[in-house]
Amino acid sequence: MLAQVSPWYAHAAQRLAAAPAHALTAPARMEWSTCPGLGPGAEILGRDLRGKHILELGCGPGHNVAHLAKHRQAHVTGVDLIGLQVRRARSHYGHIAGATFAAGHALHHLQATGRTFDAIYSVFGAVGLVAPALLLAAISRRLQPGGVLAFSVPHPARAGRHPSTDGRPREDYVTMPDRTRLPVARWEFDTRTWAAHLSRTGLRITSAQELRHPHRAPWPTTLLITARKR
Ligand SMILES: C[S@@+](CC[C@H](N)C(=O)[O-])C[C@H]1O[C@@H](n2cnc3c(N)ncnc32)[C@H](O)[C@@H]1O
After folding, report:
1. Based on CB atoms within 10 Å of each CB, which residue in 60, 85, 171, 216 is the most buried?
2. Looking at ligand 1, which atom is closest to the CA of residue 122?
């Protein structure tokens, strides 16, 4: 557990030490990768998101929560493990109607919340960082029938790596704002393995896209998966 918490805490603490968080305007686009403008936007969560209830698992500074609340008129809750990140997200976007932020582990939040959602998503967030059998089952229980799960993860074949062939997490790194790296455990599956895990929890995979950062060819950098609750 400590190995999972520390890098994310260190990341948030470095960011806040570098620059105090202040109010921001909501980004005009939802991003699924670290390369702005790459791939689809919010439309993969549904064509009309007005009044929909949406949950982000691992929201960090809350940019996508802000976009969905401000520009798509959705009711969005962003959850993050690190209280400092949640404070940062509230400083940036707490003024936007429909945007709410909560501190907690994604799995615990899903287990404790009494509500269901039209869509749940993760952008390099909790999906891939928490045991998939547990997290996907908890997500599935909190999705309405027909609800959408979308998540992006670092591509399992990025920089010449290979997807896991067993069910265990692999060592990966989080790059800190000061460019040092700290280890994290990450489940790194190919699309077929994600589809099998999704299917076991009542979720049917509906798309899988490989996004390529234009300066990091020839390998794909991000895997973006959507699924629907049966
Ligand atoms: C790489 S950042 C991505 C942040 C945000 N989704 C974005 O795109 O800007 C990963 C975030 O996931 C959070 N996180 C990691 N494990 C988590 C967990 N088990 N539950 C909730 N949040 C988690 C971290 O604290 C961190 O803020």
Report:
1. 85
2. 6
Residue nearest atom 10 of ligand 1, based on CA coordinates: 125
**Packed helices 2-18 and 83-93: angle between N→C axes, nearest 10 degrees:** 40
**Domain 2-17+47-229: top CATH class:** alpha beta
Q: Which residues line ligand 1 (CB under 6 A)?
A: 8, 57-61, 63, 79-82, 85, 105-106, 123-126, 129-130
Three-state SS for 181? strand
**Are 219 and 156 within 8 A, CB to CB?**
no
CA dist list (Å): 57 to 50, 87, 102, 147: 20, 16, 10, 16
* 147 burial type by CB count under 10 A (0-12 exposed, 13-18 middle, 19+ buried): buried
What pLDDT, in 10s, does the model give residues 24-62? 999 999 999 999 999 999 999 999 999 999 999 999 999
Phi-psi region of 109 (alpha: psi -120 to 50; beta: other; left: phi over 0): alpha
For residue 73, report the distance from its CA to the centre of ligand 1, in Å. Answer: 23
